[in-house]
């Protein structure tokens, strides 16, 4: 086993072990992938201010996200098809997060169902929902999450229409996936992955099949998926969803300060600055560039988190120092999961934690809750100087 020191090391192993179809699903953005790339590269435009001769003993990365204790302010983001990256992937990722003391968020489009994950974990997790047309299905989703003792719900608001991802179309990645001779041949070379998938009963969308009206098997899933998402979504509709869930609520997919202000009025406990990992509107601002303006607009009125582009503990440090109270990793934990299962997710969290802890110390800070812009050197015009 090679020495693993960073998230990129896990990514290289992941690329070897997981079928190309599912690797490309994770490692892609929409259209030209400009936003997908800049989500990560824009972090490097921000520099850290090193301090010396500061007492660095007694450091703490412990914090809270929406009032819940976390060992560091990093949650596992909702990622669809996680159970195709590794057999029982959502269960394994949830277990790793639970042991590490950080939140795990289950996607509606997961392979393992809400009930599967609840049955195989001891602590509450978070559940993410899309804004779908079917009120009955939505209410039952929230009710199932409540029955599973989920401690927060997350509504993703940036998927009214699906951004085009060229790689997925070329690979036949749909719901359910369309297998081609090329993709089957590639899967046959991934022996460890294949044995794992043969050994599990969880190979379809566990929250949909058998729960959504008319979806009794994978073959009826594609019709439902094509018709389920609601292009007429507006803020009044989101208020209706808020009434379906009486627990802590997070709204994911905010990238403009005007939408952040709208999100204040629907009773959410937190918003996530996110462009869906660059998978929706290509050419949109990266999440880290969008964060300062959103903090200026609503940061003193609602808890602000950041998702999209985090690949290191230094990225976490920069987001927190710009004002975010929490961050999310999606691809970073998926690389670990595909590379080594639950142990790989744990390794990804260990990497992020160590980078955060050491970098924070070298910036002269000992408590993650005390981070601010003083440890950063942010270039002028980082947010953009745009014409009206």
UniProtKB/TrEMBL annotation:
<protein>
    <submittedName>
        <fullName>Alpha-hydroxy-acid oxidizing protein</fullName>
    </submittedName>
</protein>
<feature type="binding site">
    <location>
        <position position="279"/>
    </location>
    <ligand>
        <name>glyoxylate</name>
    </ligand>
</feature>
<feature type="binding site">
    <location>
        <position position="25"/>
    </location>
    <ligand>
        <name>glyoxylate</name>
    </ligand>
</feature>
<feature type="binding site">
    <location>
        <begin position="330"/>
        <end position="331"/>
    </location>
    <ligand>
        <name>FMN</name>
    </ligand>
</feature>
<feature type="binding site">
    <location>
        <begin position="307"/>
        <end position="311"/>
    </location>
    <ligand>
        <name>FMN</name>
    </ligand>
</feature>
<feature type="domain" description="FMN hydroxy acid dehydrogenase">
    <location>
        <begin position="1"/>
        <end position="381"/>
    </location>
</feature>
<dbReference type="InterPro" id="IPR008259">
    <property type="entry name" value="FMN_hydac_DH_AS"/>
</dbReference>
<feature type="binding site">
    <location>
        <position position="130"/>
    </location>
    <ligand>
        <name>FMN</name>
    </ligand>
</feature>
<feature type="active site" description="Proton acceptor">
    <location>
        <position position="276"/>
    </location>
</feature>
<feature type="binding site">
    <location>
        <position position="128"/>
    </location>
    <ligand>
        <name>FMN</name>
    </ligand>
</feature>
<dbReference type="InterPro" id="IPR000262">
    <property type="entry name" value="FMN-dep_DH"/>
</dbReference>
<feature type="binding site">
    <location>
        <position position="274"/>
    </location>
    <ligand>
        <name>FMN</name>
    </ligand>
</feature>
<feature type="binding site">
    <location>
        <position position="156"/>
    </location>
    <ligand>
        <name>FMN</name>
    </ligand>
</feature>
<comment type="similarity">
    <text>Belongs to the FMN-dependent alpha-hydroxy acid dehydrogenase family.</text>
</comment>
<feature type="binding site">
    <location>
        <position position="107"/>
    </location>
    <ligand>
        <name>FMN</name>
    </ligand>
</feature>
<dbReference type="GO" id="GO:0016614">
    <property type="term" value="F:oxidoreductase activity, acting on CH-OH group of donors"/>
</dbReference>
<keyword id="KW-0288">FMN</keyword>
<feature type="binding site">
    <location>
        <position position="165"/>
    </location>
    <ligand>
        <name>glyoxylate</name>
    </ligand>
</feature>
<feature type="binding site">
    <location>
        <position position="276"/>
    </location>
    <ligand>
        <name>glyoxylate</name>
    </ligand>
</feature>
<dbReference type="InterPro" id="IPR012133">
    <property type="entry name" value="Alpha-hydoxy_acid_DH_FMN"/>
</dbReference>
<dbReference type="Pfam" id="PF01070">
    <property type="entry name" value="FMN_dh"/>
</dbReference>
<dbReference type="InterPro" id="IPR013785">
    <property type="entry name" value="Aldolase_TIM"/>
</dbReference>
<feature type="binding site">
    <location>
        <position position="252"/>
    </location>
    <ligand>
        <name>FMN</name>
    </ligand>
</feature>
<feature type="binding site">
    <location>
        <begin position="78"/>
        <end position="80"/>
    </location>
    <ligand>
        <name>FMN</name>
    </ligand>
</feature>
<dbReference type="GO" id="GO:0005886">
    <property type="term" value="C:plasma membrane"/>
</dbReference>
<dbReference type="GO" id="GO:0010181">
    <property type="term" value="F:FMN binding"/>
</dbReference>
<keyword id="KW-0560">Oxidoreductase</keyword>
<dbReference type="InterPro" id="IPR037396">
    <property type="entry name" value="FMN_HAD"/>
</dbReference>
<keyword id="KW-0285">Flavoprotein</keyword>
């Amino acid at each position: 086993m090679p020495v693993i020191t960073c998230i990129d090391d896990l990514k290289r192993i992941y690329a070897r072990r997981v079928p190309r179809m599912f690797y490309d699903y994770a490692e892609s953005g929409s259209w030209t992938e400009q936003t997908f790339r800049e989500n990560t590269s824009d972090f490097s435009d921000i520099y850290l201010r090193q301090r010396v001769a500061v007492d660095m003993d007694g450091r703490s990365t412990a914090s809270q996200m929406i009032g819940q204790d976390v060992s560091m302010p990093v949650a596992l983001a909702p990622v669809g098809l996680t159970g195709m990256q590794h057999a029982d992937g959502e269960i394994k990722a949830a277990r790793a997060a639970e042991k590490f003391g950080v939140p795990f968020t289950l996607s509606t489009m997961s392979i393992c169902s809400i009930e599967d994950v609840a049955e195989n974990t001891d602590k509450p997790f978070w559940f993410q929902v899309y804004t779908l047309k079917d009120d009955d299905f939505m209410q039952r989703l929230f009710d199932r999450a409540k029955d599973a003792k989920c401690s927060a719900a997350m509504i993703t608001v940036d998927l009214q229409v699906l951004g085009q991802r060229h790689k997925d179309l070329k690979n036949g990645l749909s719901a359910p996936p369309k297998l081609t001779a090329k993709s089957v041949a590639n899967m046959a070379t991934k022996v460890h992955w294949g044995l794992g998938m043969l050994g599990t009963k969880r190979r379809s969308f566990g929250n949909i099949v058998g729960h959504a009206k008319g979806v009794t098997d994978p073959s009826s899933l594609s019709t439902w998926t094509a018709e389920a998402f609601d292009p007429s979504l507006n803020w009044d509709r989101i208020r209706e969803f808020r009434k379906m869930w009486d627990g802590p609520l997070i709204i994911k997919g905010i990238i403009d300060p005007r939408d952040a202000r709208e999100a204040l009025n629907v009773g959410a406990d937190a918003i996530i600055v996110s462009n869906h990992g660059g998978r929706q509107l290509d050419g949109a601002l990266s999440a880290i560039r969008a964060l300062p303006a959103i903090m200026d607009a609503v940061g003193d009125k609602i808890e602000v988190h950041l998702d999209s582009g985090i690949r290191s503990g230094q990225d976490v440090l920069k987001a927190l120092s710009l004002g975010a109270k929490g961050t999310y990793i999606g691809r970073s934990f998926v690389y670990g999961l595909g590379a080594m299962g639950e142990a790989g997710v744990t390794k990804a969290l260990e990497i992020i934690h160590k980078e955060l802890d050491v970098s924070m110390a070298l910036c002269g800070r000992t408590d993650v809750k005390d981070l601010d812009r003083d440890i950063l050197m942010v270039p002028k015009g980082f947010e953009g100087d745009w014409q009206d």
